[in-house]
Amino acid sequence: MPRENLVGQVIAGYTLQSEIGEGGTSAVFKAQHAAHGTVAVKVLREKLRQDRTAVARFLREARYGERVKHPNVVRTIEIGESGPGMHFLAIEWADGELLEKYAKRQGPLPADEVAAIVTQMADAVQAAHAVGIVHRDLKPENVMYNPATRQVKLLDFGIATDTDMAPEERLTRAGFFVGTLMYVAPEALSGELVGPSADQYSLATIAYFLLTGCLPFTAKTPREMFSQLLSQPPIPLNQARPGLRFSSSVESVVMRALSKDPSKRYSDTVSFATELSKVLSDPHEDEDEEGILARMKSLFRKK
Questions:
Q1: Same domain for 179 and 109
Q2: Residue of 137, 156, 199, 268 marked active site
Q3: What is the mean predicted confidence (pLDDT) over 180-191?
Q4: CATH number for the domain that contains residue 59
Q5: What is the residue-wise DSSP string for 129-186?
Q6: pLDDT for 246-271, tens place per residue?
């Protein structure tokens, strides 16, 4: 069955100009609207328009995104249905590129840039937590980043969950985890409903990746990754990449947020980001005696 081609079509006043992304359930288009200008439009795939669960997931994502209002979260413009089953979601157009592509090309990133990115992401996630929503899929692929302005925009509430949701309202069966293995918190692997601390773990994994260009685990397959997440500690930050060294304070902050036990992490994502920014801003914090001596000698030589 050939895939539906919507480029050039007009959906509820949105002219779809080009397809810019696709997933298993929907396609995303760059579009123009007379009143809203350039926007992004997500459209449910044709094959899923009669699937009640798929439709429910799509609408849930749209409504969650609508509830989270923050400068670092893409703004929801309109949720609608154009024709039978053709559900769509129009959101603001975010300038830049996916953080994943940028970080792979430019990483490891400078400390101040990492601090700026993590702080904005933490603020966005905290705004979601404040209205009872856990994102559950924080990863560089779900973040738009503009290097020129260093502005972050959080995307995709497709597998987010409401912490007040009754068990019978859940769309994920118990025993089945959701998320991306490389960034998911260990407690999510049970398939049980996770709390805000799971987003903090994912954000810490992103910080680790931005600082080092590596991930906290070295698994080569999903099965191996699953096993490592459950049974092994993450690789210490200062062992992630040969020749790359951080202060013990930076390592301590990141590794605390990567604790397998949620109760040992920070109280919330903003607390983690604030502490990380603080230690990243002082390159000499916790410097060892040898390093201090070397700096003192250097100062004396300049006199």
A1: yes
A2: 137
A3: 86
A4: 3.30.200.20
A5: HHTTEE----SGGGEEEETTTTEEEE---TT-EETT--GGG-SS-TT---S-TTT--G
A6: 999 999 999 999 999 999 999 999 99
